[in-house]
Each structure stands twice: as structure tokens, then as C-alpha cells.
Amino acid sequence: MELSNLVLRFRGQPNDVVDHVSLAAKSGEVLCVVGESGCGKSVTAMALMGLLPPDSSLISSGNLRIGGETFDLTRDVVPRAMRGNRIAMIFQEPMTSLNPAFRVGDQICEAIIQQGGATRAQARARAETMLRRVGIANPAQRLLEYPHQLSGGMRQRVMIAMALANDPQVLIADEPTTALDVTIQAQILDLIRDLRDDIGMSTIMITHDLGVVAEIGDRIAVMYGGQVVEQGPVREVFDNPQHPYTIGLMSAMPGLERPGARLAIVPGTVPTIANMPEGCRFRTRCVFATAACARRPALSEIAAQHQVACHFVPLEENIEVAR
Amino acid sequence: MKQDIILEAIDVVKHFGTGGGWLSRYPVVQAVDGVSLEVRRGETFAIVGESGCGKSTLARLLMQLLTPTSGDVLFEGRQVSAIKGQELRRLRRDMQFIFQDPFSSLNPRMTVGKLVGEPLEIHAPDLSAQDRRAKVAELLRQVGLRAEHADRYPHEFSGGQRQRIGIARAVASGPKLIIGDEPVSALDVSVQAQVINLLGDLSRDLGLTLVIIAHDLGVIRHMSDRVAVMYLGRIVEVGTTEDVFADPQHPYTQALLAAVPSMDGAVTDHSETVHGEMPSPFDPPQGCRFHTRCPHAQALCKTQVPTLSTGKRASHQVACHFAETLPAQPRPATAPQKSKTAEARFALYRAATEGGAIAHKEKQDRP
Ligand SMILES: Nc1ncnc2c1ncn2[C@@H]1O[C@H](COP(=O)(O)OP(=O)(O)OP(=O)(O)O)[C@@H](O)[C@H]1O
Ligand SMILES: Nc1ncnc2c1ncn2[C@@H]1O[C@H](COP(=O)(O)OP(=O)(O)O)[C@@H](O)[C@H]1O
Ligand code: SF4
Ligand code: SF4
Ligand SMILES: [Mg+2]
Ligand SMILES: [Mg+2]
């Protein structure tokens, strides 16, 4: 799957909330999209899925290619028929996307039947297989239960089962483990990894946890203020982080530094979309910012498959810091 | 030598009934079930565990915001439940609380000046209005805000700034001990780092004792001197942060640490360390509460409750029947390896954030 040049603005706002974002994931590959809250990760995912209502949002540029087909996102959304069997999404909070009034089994069957072809009995058998596949014991019993009868981890498994029921080529997972405890998160990550290996789907994993990226990602895209500021293979970006925001995020993580030492910080907070500066959007928080940063830096190649958008990379060659 | 214990819990129990009369068959949640712990003066003591294990309930018990079903809490050696009147006010001054949610824990109709000044009105009533204003300004500066912020309302601030307001409020009365229930969990990592630094500075500068509740093991490892691990209402392991992270003794602690995604990208098979999900707190397992998920469980574990007892180090206690015989699971004590390049850039970045003079060289744009 390949998304190119997505530009999106909420109507009535002065700036684009997603600004020329391009993302790609090969089959069998996990692309992790990271960044702090409000940097446009979910909006990008929703736009991919065609879930943003056109009366409140305006897409002025963007193409999505899945397999051999290309969609012009400015004109049409991915047809409903393709969502589900080509591209499926799981959300951060499973309770909001499972209907509390219906049995789990009926909801999964519905998703399967909607994609066409299956009879009720086939759908039911498929639903049972899927639940077993995502590691739920007693699937026949669970199909008869309501969402509130399941734990958070189990609900997330049901969501994954539902999303994968029609063998999608692309799975978008928006912070699928953020609401879960770490032992359950570990189980879900194991599951996503196994399924990726079995099915060979492309996965876009949205997260703000760099540990999750290290654990499951093949490639990483770092977003700030609705733009991709750095992207590349995970190992390469971790070993050779270039953008000041990437470096800031990594140094702010507790657990990487000696315990008790002061953490390096990214000063300030993310500006609202209306207050985004011109030029490099990070410049109101960047310690290296200078007048040149009022011009927007292009996302350009710094190493094999590794791109970064900053006027001063590599930093050590262009900037000196006297202590 | 007996350590200077500022706060102590002795076999504290809190059971919540969930409605109905005394004859009702509504289940009881054993939220905290026999917790004993000692917090030493000046240390940062962490309580870690997964959702629903009773951390917040324990914090509220320690703060006297909840009355225990049984057991005692001692502050500076005195039984807290027996403290009344004037003494209780002094206790409230000495022990303060920081809440998880910076969005709902501040009264939206009060200005920041009023919010931070309120504890002063209660605990330092003799202060003149002018002195109080000066003190509020000083507190705001201390937590990294500005004096002129005093006239604004909470909704005008970001999450991290609101947490700073909460911290200023907690520090205002000049407490000896602050309990924080997930004080940084709601914050993004860059802002979280700012608040972690602030708490560290305050505890050092003011000689505060901190009790920090968190579920993020990275945060705990970074901030705390000692840590207690909770599972379903009980403490299963307690020791110095260094020992617990480097050589966890309890199978649950081992599983918890193995579950943290590792930055060096090593892939762990988690089915080996912990099975299934947390049992319902309405009907916790008999014996060792972890036995339904423990890969090492044996028949004894289903019936006998293991007690917290000293293992191979005097300062390290574990509640597991087989702690002595389990295979050791030492973990690398050092932070994950960083490449030389990454190391150098982190150092450059750190120097710049800490006020180093920055010079841009001639070469700028690339085409
Ligand atoms: N007032 C109450 N009435 C009934 N049950 C309660 C009450 N407060 C807490 N509980 C229950 O007690 C148990 C422990 O809750 P507690 O809030 O202490 O957990 P926690 O460890 O802080 O979890 P989290 O990490 O999700 O904040 C839970 O099962 C919870 O549902
Ligand atoms: N329906 C909407 N209308 C207007 N603004 C929105 C809407 N949804 C999200 N936003 C704004 O878009 C920005 C990006 O949000 P989002 O993609 O949810 O961030 P995240 O990276 O945390 O997923 C935020 O500033 C958010 O407030
Ligand atoms: S372009 Fe300027 S402001 Fe933007 S990241 Fe680079 S140095 Fe910082
Ligand atoms: S007492 Fe038994 S069940 Fe409990 S942690 Fe130890 S080995 Fe596991
Ligand atoms: Mg989001
Ligand atoms: Mg809690």
C-alpha cells in the first residue's frame, strides 16, 4: 500500500492538519507511525479509511494505491466494499467500535456477510475460526456474549478478529495496545506479529511508544504537526536519528538514560493547528531553530531509504554547541 | 540501624461492597487485601501494577481519603485514623496528593492564583494577602510557570502545565510527603520528561518523600529508589529499584519486565512468562493469587497464601513459595546499547537543551 501527498484540512481552520504526508508499507511489512498526541496520526488513518465526513474535512491532495488499484482521495473515498477485504482498521478503544447492544458473534458475522458471498452458517464458522486464531479460548461460547462481558484484552482480540475476518491486504492499527496493560499488550503484539507473518498483510501501526516500534516495526515514520519529519528502517533511524524532534523524543524516554539522571526534554508543547508556525513546524520547540527555519525544509534522503526534513542535518556537521 | 520510617502500612485491607444490604449476595471487591509497607524519609517509593490491582485504592488509604476495612496506617509513627481536629489539619499539611488527571482535578472556575493560594489560606492563615501573592508567585516559578499565570484559568493551560499547577498546589503547604497517583501517565513523552525532572528537583531541593504510583516501568525505574509490585490487591515483591529490575524474584515481576517492549528489538515469546488475563477481583484465586497465570505454579500454590518474606538479600522481599528454587532471570542492568552516532547526537541535543551556546556553521540548505 502506498499513500502519497495527503493534504487535509478541517473546514474553518487556517492550516492543514495533515500536510503532504506520504507513507508506504510493503506486504508483510509493519510501518510504525509515531508522534505525540495531536500530531495528526489518527486523522491520517481515518482519511485512509474514508471515515472523515466531507462536510467537515477537505482533502485537497492525496492518492492511495492498494495492490494494483489507485484512488484519488480528493474525489472519492475507498469504496465501502473494499474496506474490510482490502483495508481494515482497529481502533484505540475497542469499546467504541464494538456495539454494546449486540452479541460479539453477530457483529463479526455481520462484517463477514457484508463483504458478500458468505451464508449465515459459513460466516458463523469463519467467526469461530477467527476467534480461535486470535487466541480466544472457548470461541463458540464467546460468540454468544456481549462486549461488556469481555475484558479489555479480549475485546481488542475480537476487534482484530473482526478486522482480519476478510483477509485484508492492509491493516491499520491506531494505538491498538495503548489502553491495555503491559502483559496484555505483549500478547497482542505477539498476535499481530504472528498474523503478519501468516497472512503477509501490510500493517500501519500507529503508536506513541518507541518500545513498541522496536519490538514490531520494520519501518518508522515520525510525525510532528501533521508532517512526516523523518522516516526510514527502524534500526537505521534508531542508530542514526537525524531530526531534532526524533532525537528529542528518544532522549525524553525514561528508561534509556541512567536512572535518576535528568531527562533531556523537548521544551514546550505542541501548538494547536491554528498556531502552527510557517516554515518548519517544529521551530517553536526546536533548540536548534534559527532564522533559516522560517523556510520549510524538504523531506530528503540522508541515507539509504532514510529521509529527514531539517535544514541542518546531519547536526554534528552543521551545528556546534559550546558547553 | 532502624531506618527513619515516615509512612507505614500494617496489614491494610479495603473491601468494597458493590451495593445491596448486608444480606445481599452482591460480590465484594477485595481491592486491597493485607498490604504492609514502609516508606523511608526522603526516598522515592514506587508502587507498580496493572490496572485494577488496587494501586489507587492503596494510595487513598495511605492518604486517609478512604478508611481501611482493617489494618493501620502510621505517619511518623502515629496511627493516622486516631488523629483528630487541629492535628488532622497538620497531617493534611504534611501529606499532599497529586492526581493523575490534570484535566479534571482542578476547579475550572478558580484562577491559578486562587488554586495555588488555597492551601496557603488553610495552612498558613497568618500570611497577609500580599505575602500570599508573593508566595504563590514563587511557587509558580518553582514549578516552571510564570507569576503572571496566576490570573488565568486552568482551561487556558496544556496538560503538562496543569500538572505543574497541581504540583504547585501540593507543594504549597510545605508537605513532608507527596503521594502521586499516576502523576505523569496522562502526559505525552516530551512533557512527561519535563514533569519527571520537576518532581526529581523538588524532592531533592525540598527534601520531600515521594510515593509514586505508576504502571509505566520505565518511569518507575527512572524515578524511584525502591519499588513495590502489586498484583490483585497484594504486594508480591518489594526491594530497591535496582535489585527488582536487575534480578526480579517473583514470577509476576519477571513477566511484567519481560512484557515491556525492549528498545533493542529483541523478540520475546510472552506465552512462556504469563498466561491469560487478570482474574476478576470479585473472585480472586485462592492461595497465591497469581497461580492461574503463573508458569511455575504447583499444587501448593492453589491452597497456601505465600507471605512476603526476605529472600537472598535483606532488602528484597518476595511472596512466592518457590522463589528460592526458581531459575534466576537476571536482566541487563544497563540501558540498551545505543550506536556511537546516536550517542553523539543525544549529547549534542542535551547540551543544547541545557543552555549550551549554539552556533550554526556556514553550510546550510541542501537543494
Ligand atoms: N469505590 C469503589 N467501589 C467498588 N469497587 C471499587 C471502588 N474503588 C475501586 N474499586 C475496585 O477495586 C479494585 C482496585 O481498584 P483501583 O482503582 O485501586 O485499581 P488501580 O490499581 O488504581 O487501577 P488503575 O491502574 O486502572 O488505575 C478494582 O477492581 C476496582 O474496580
Ligand atoms: N473532527 C475534527 N475536527 C477538527 N479538528 C480535529 C478533528 N479531529 C481531530 N482534530 C484535530 O486534528 C489534530 C490531529 O488529531 P489526531 O489525528 O487525532 O492526533 P493523533 O496524532 O493524536 O492521533 C488535533 O489538533 C485534533 O485536535
Ligand atoms: S529545520 Fe530548523 S527548526 Fe526545523 S528541525 Fe531543523 S533546525 Fe529545527
Ligand atoms: S507461589 Fe506458586 S503460583 Fe505463586 S508465584 Fe510462586 S510459584 Fe507462582
Ligand atoms: Mg490518535
Ligand atoms: Mg488507579
From TrEMBL, chain B:
Domain ABC transporter: 7-257
Gene3D superfamilies per UniProt: P-loop containing nucleotide triphosphate hydrolases
GO biological process: peptide transport; transmembrane transport
UniProt similarity note: Belongs to the ABC transporter superfamily.
Keywords on record: ATP-binding, Nucleotide-binding, Transport
Record-linked PROSITE patterns: ABC_TRANSPORTER_1 (PS00211), ABC_TRANSPORTER_2 (PS50893)
Organism expressing this protein natively: Roseobacter cerasinus
GO molecular function, one term: ATP hydrolysis activity
CC annotations in GO: plasma membrane
InterPro entries: AAA+_ATPase, ABC_transp_ATP-bind, ABC_transporter-like_ATP-bd, ABC_transporter-like_CS, Oligopep_ABC_C, P-loop_NTPase
Main location: membrane
Membrane topology classification: Peripheral membrane protein
Protein name: Oligopeptide ABC transporter ATP-binding protein
Keyword Coiled coil belongs to the record: no
Record has Transport as a keyword: yes
Compartment(s) of residence: Cell inner membrane
